[in-house]
Amino acid sequence: MNIVLLEPDQCASADVWQISQPRQLQHLGQHLQLNVGDTLKVGIREGQRYLTEVVAISEECIRVRPVQTEAVPAKLPVHLILALPRPKVLRRIMMDAVTLGVERISLIHSYRVDKSYWQTPFLQQLNDYVTLGLEQAGDTIAPEIQLYKRFKPFVEDVLPTLISAEQPAYVAHPYAEQPMPYAIQHSCSLIVGPEGGFIPYEVDLLIKNGCQAMSLGNRILRTETAVSNILGRLFV
Amino acid sequence: MNIVLLEPDQCASADVWQISQPRQLQHLGQHLQLNVGDTLKVGIREGQRYLTEVVAISEECIRVRPVQTEAVPAKLPVHLILALPRPKVLRRIMMDAVTLGVERISLIHSYRVDKSYWQTPFLQQLNDYVTLGLEQAGDTIAPEIQLYKRFKPFVEDVLPTLISAEQPAYVAHPYAEQPMPYAIQHSCSLIVGPEGGFIPYEVDLLIKNGCQAMSLGNRILRTETAVSNILGRLFV
C-alpha cells in the first residue's frame, strides 16, 4: 500500500479527511509508525492524489489534512483481455494488472475455463482487488472492467470493434511464429488465455477476427507471470 | 507442469522410465487422461528433454519409453539478486524466476528483510520450487542458487566480482533517474529489493560498489510482479 485510497464521499467538502477503514488502519499500524505531523500519501478514488499531514490519531481513525497535490501515474494504453483465471489466481492477477496500469480489463470465457469459476464469490470482490492494485501503484483511477461469459459472441461481435490499424490485438500463443513485439508506441489489446492455453479452434477464431498470434519464446509461463512479463516488454 | 521432471537415477540404464512421485501422478491424473500409447514430455534433471510414449499405467506408476529428444529452452543470461522475500512469496517468486529462465539466483539479506525469514522451513524447499519452475517452463537445468545472510559483505566482497563493462548490475530503484534498459544484448545482474525497498544506505552502498540504479517509472510494483516485468523488458 503506497497510498491510502479514500472514496470521494469521505472527502467531500471537508478540510480534514478520516481514514477509518479497518484494513487500511491495520496496514498503517503494522507498517508505519505514524505520529501527528507526519506526512502520508492519500488518493481520492477517481480523483487526485495528495500529500497529506496527519492531524489526529485514534484507535478508530486517522485524520489527515491535504497539503499538496501529487501526480497520478499515467496508464498503459492497453486493454487486457484475459480468460477468467481460477479464483485463487484471480485476485493476484487483477491486482497486478491494475498496479501495472492497465487501462481496461475484460474477463472472458474459454474452453479451458471451468464454468464454476463464473460462480465464485471472488468475482464479487473485483472492486476490492482494484483498490489493492491502485494502492500498491499509487494510482487513483480504476480501469474499466467487463465480463463476457460467452467466448464466441465476444470474439465475433465485440473484439472486431476494438481492433484497428493503430490498435492491434495480440494473442499470446506459444506456437506462433512471430515474436510478441516490444517497445510499442501505440495502444493495443493483449489477449492471454487460460492455464493450458486456448484450444486451436479458439486461436483460429481469434485470428479470423483480426487478432495477431504472437509467441513468447519456448518457455511456457503461468498466466499471472505472462501478464506482467508481456506488459514489461510491450511498454518500456 | 509442461514436462515431467525425473531424477537422473530414475532413468539410469533403462529403456523404460517410471513416473512414481505422488505429486506428479496426481497432476497427470487431474489434467491429462493418459492412455497407453499416448505421448508425454519428460525431462531428466540436468539432462535432456524427451518426447516419450506411455507403455504402462498403474495406480502407483506410469511407465514411459523415450521416443526422441527435444530442445531444452535457452536460459536468460541474468543473475537475479533478490532480497529474501517473505516466506509466502518465496515459492512463487522462485518458481517464476526459474520458469522465466534465470541462470543464477542469489538471495540476500537487507534491512527490510525480517530476520525470521532466514529461519523459515520454506528455505529448505528451494529445490522443490526449482522443480516446479522447470516443469512449468519445460526446462531441465536448475539455476545455481546461493544465500547471503549478510548484506554488506555480499555487496562489498562478492558483488564487485560479478560486475564488468560487459556485465553490468542494475538495481531496480523507484527514485532513480535513468530508466531500466530494454532489449539488452549482453548478460547482467539484476538486483531487486525487499517489499518497502532498499534503504538509502543500501542503495548508496550498491552504487558505490558498481551497480547502476534504474527506475521502473512511477508505479511501485510488488517484488514478484517486478521480477517478471523487468525480465520481460530486459530480454525481448
Automatic annotation (TrEMBL), chains A, B:
One GO cellular component assignment for this chain's record is: cytoplasm
Extract the signal peptide range: none
Output the InterPro entries linked to this UniProt entry.
Alpha/beta_knot_MTases, RsmE, RsmE_MTase_dom, tRNA_m1G_MTases_N
A Gene Ontology molecular function term for this protein is: rRNA (uridine-N3-)-methyltransferase activity
Q: Which residues form the Ribosomal RNA small subunit methyltransferase E methyltransferase domain?
A: 74-231
- Enumerate the Pfam families for this protein: Methyltrans_RNA
E.C. designation(s): 2.1.1.193
Going by the UniProt record, its keywords in alphabetical order are: Cytoplasm, Methyltransferase, rRNA processing, S-adenosyl-L-methionine, Transferase
Per UniProt, subcellular location reads as: Cytoplasm
* EC primary class: transferase
Which reaction is recorded as catalysed by this protein?
uridine(1498) in 16S rRNA + S-adenosyl-L-methionine = N(3)-methyluridine(1498) in 16S rRNA + S-adenosyl-L-homocysteine + H(+)
A Gene Ontology biological process in which this protein takes part is: rRNA base methylation
Q: Which family does it belong to?
A: Belongs to the RNA methyltransferase RsmE family.
Give a short account of what the protein does: Specifically methylates the N3 position of the uracil ring of uridine 1498 (m3U1498) in 16S rRNA. Acts on the fully assembled 30S ribosomal subunit.
Q: What is the protein name for this chain?
A: Ribosomal RNA small subunit methyltransferase E
Taxonomic placement: Bacteria, Pseudomonadati, Pseudomonadota, Gammaproteobacteria, Moraxellales
